[in-house]
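Entry 14. Ran structure prediction on the chain below.
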Amino acid sequence: MAPALHDGDYLVARRYGRRVPAIGDLAVVRHRQYGLMVKRVIAERQSGGFDLAGDGTASTPAVDLRSIPLSCFEARVLCRLPIGR
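Output, structure tokens:
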């Protein structure tokens, strides 16, 4: 799958607030090991966490993006602005 985002893109995002992430969302999350990152929500776990994945082949390993708690979600990406290309 081709990456949805490219170096230099600007993003418009909105804080989740009370909204729960949905499968397919591009989400801004604060990961304990990698810091702030943008990943796609691919599954919701019964335990309350979410599984994330990157769209590109060089993305963060999926094993590190399993069961991310709701408290780590910062915002939902609304659109991408391809600047400088």
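The CA atoms of residues 32 and 76 lie 19 Å apart. Will compare against last week's run tomorrow.
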